[in-house]
Design goal:
Blueprint lengths: L5 H12 L15 H11 L3 E9 L5 E8 L2 H15 L2 E2 L6 E3 L3 H6 L8 H10 L6 E3 L7 E4 L6 E6 L2 H12 L8 E5 L12 E3 L10 H8 L8 E10 L6 E5 L2 H14 L6 E6 L8 E2 L4 E3 L2 H9 L8 E9 L4 E7 L2 H14 L7 E4 L10 E3 L3 E2 L2 H8 L11 E9 L6 E3 L2 E3 L10 H20 L3 H13 L7 H5 L3 H11 L39 H12 L9 H6 L6 H8 L9 H12 L12 H11 L4 H12 L8 H4 L5 H10 L7 H12 L8 H6 L2 H11 L12 H12 L15 H11 L16 H12 L8 H5 L3 H9 L3 H17 L2 H8 L1
Antiparallel strand pairs: 1-2, 1-3, 1-4, 5-22, 6-21, 7-20, 8-19, 8-20, 9-18, 10-16, 10-17, 11-13, 11-15, 12-14, 12-15
Helix pairs in contact: 13-15, 16-18, 21-23, 21-24, 24-26, 27-28, 29-31
Amino acid sequence: MSIMTEDQVKLLHKLQMAEIPAFKNINPLTLQEDEARDLFRMNLPPLEWINAAAQNEKHELVEKRFIGVSENNCREQMKDWLEKENLTLLQQPNPQFGAGEAWLEYFSQPLKSVNLKALNDHFERWEIPIPRIPVPKDQQEVLRHKAPVPAQEIYARLDAEELGQELQKLRSGRSASEGIQFGFAPGDVGTFEEDTTFHTFLSPLSAPSAKEWERLAGSLPVEELVGQVQVDTVLSDVECKPYYALLSPEELQTEIEYFQANGEFRNGIEIGYASGGKTKAEKSVEPLVTELSDEELDQLEAGTFADWNKLRGQKLLGFSKAQEIPVFRRMSPEELQKELELFAESGKFSSPDISVGHVPERETYKKEFHRPLVPLSEKELTDLAAGKTIRNQDILLAQKLVCRTPQIPGTAVYEKKFSALELAFDDCPQKRLEIYAQYRKEQDERALNKVTPELRAQIKALQESGKGPKIDRENYLAFTRKDAETYIQEHEQNPENTFTPTVYPKRAVPKNEAFPQFKKSNLFSQPQADYLQRSILRDLAAEGHIASPETVGEFLGKLEFITDAQAKELIKPHLGKSAGTGLLNQCRAYMESGKIFNEKEIKTIADVQRLYQVNRGMDFDKKAALKDLIEGGYIQSNDALAKIKFTTELQDDALIAKYSDARIGRNLRARINDLIDEAKIGQIADEDFQQMSISKGMQIIAANAELECSKHPMATQGQIALLQKMEQRGQIDLHKIDLTRLRFRTADQWIKQNINNPARNTHNPDAPATTKQRGLLTLLVREKLIKNIPYSEWRDMTVDQASKRISSVPPRLLQQAIERQNAPQRNISPRQRTSMER
């Protein structure tokens, strides 16, 4: 067996410089060549490469090899090479896979040609941690400039009382107050989560220093100075919470005696165990004790309680109040300059609402505000003022304008850290190597001077036994290893109780981990919960049905690890509970856009599950195209594969149309290969197959759909006629539906869902004229019983207008016109009708 080769040693040194954990303590002198090969293969992620052959302008053959972390990465490099060298590719190359020592070739590439983000993401996917090296502040370079922040209008929701006052103004004929807006929250039908709020970026400024105030008074410039004006104050959304304080031992004893005498505690007094075993502040918004059980209360009253030392008491001090938070707008440079000139002259600003200073690094005051609403139409606003019920009345919102923020210019973004993987490349800049060398030197010195846990334990033992004196906390925290060793050496030979022993409080036992059954390893053998299930669980946790306030953060953190079986078990007891706001808004958005049809009211979680299961798209060819778009990076979302299970046919069509020029991937290729294998289509040339777009692939599959007419048949005439009758009875609304494109399965679902709906007898005069009315009006115009109707009136005709025109014809003439229309059909014999049909 031979020792490691020169290339293996070189790769090992690169990986050790990049601080990849598996290679940290490997000694090349003690490792054999085969062992090193296995070590690289098992601890490095795989690579892909392609060998490209092309022709130049002189028709000479040019070959080059491209290596990357993915096929797409390799093809991007190849595309740049072809464009730069003005070459023509002879044939689409096939990717090849490798690992281990192939990374030496990868690191030999020019650093500027490598996609560093894709490289770091590749290691992250394989759960290989890569450290980031901090760049000293004086050596940081500008990476880019942030885009300017546009001016924004900040709104706050009206409370019930304010909303009532504004509606009263509208109904009395007056206009709403200035800055008031009525409408519906903007909805994004592509996601389940709400996206209707944002936070202000304006908070109190850091005041200038005394020296800076002196410079301002002398009309001298101060760096990074900004100004802002307070435009309003708003109340924080914090709910009132009780404040508690611990009872002293004497107070606790008094309250126990009172309880034993009267059988109850005084108002605001509670006695129990220490809450969680943690030491809390004297004043807290969280309970300081855990309640006693009924049995323990009986024991306390009888004086037979097991362990009196465990008891603690708390008293209620009062309740927290909502805080007033100031809302600011930034001053423009011109406004700031005027204020500074005024300050230099008079020593004060033009208004007490104006403040000047520096933007704090961390914003301390955050307040949730709302974006502009989708406004009501003129007719909806008129109906609202008249007190009528409008469409979507249940989600009508109102808000008032708080302030408008000015545009903020773009700011520079500095490179504060860089990936250690950059150090492994052959052409890594010397500046990076110097920064890393200094960083490693500081880390080694810190590790060398750090007091180990063993040394701290020895110091603590000396102080508890009285052999060593107590050390001031600031000095103790500044101890180096040499200081600790000297202290131990000086005092370890002392007899006990030489000094006053130090008593250290015992640490509380940490709480057990919550939800230990939700772990990542479950997903190796069981399917993950789908996107809809996780959205439901997120809503249930937010509303307090699942997890306690203390553990809800841990629950949400483990939500990605919940399996399908666990999700079903968690959701099952809550199917009858009301669905969360996010899910309900999403359902409404789908129904309003016509992508989901449902006449029944959506209230519970079970309703939401049924709605999405019934209406999700089931076209496997379209789902294959969407998977290709996701894998190709055109559709970017962490949960994209989970979401497309619930997208409808219309959404699938829209996404495929948007990215129709993208190339097909392995999923659509597999569908087309099935057609070739079944001899339903002929062979396709390799070059055409490699260059084929999504739209072309879908056209090939769609052309074959005629041979599979039973796969997705269109709705029958009987189904369409029944749906139209149901619409006339008010059982269903089809005005947004294109009946010519309706599928058999969808029509069947709608009929089953809505056939049992009660017929609506309420007359809506503003509804569009029915098909029956329009047919009757056409007959009356043809019979010259009424005048011709202009197209503009015909197009917008309502039920009420159509009824008035029909009722203007005498009933006798109307009946005669209908009989004349039907007469020819009744006079034709069965034999004549058969011959006509032939």
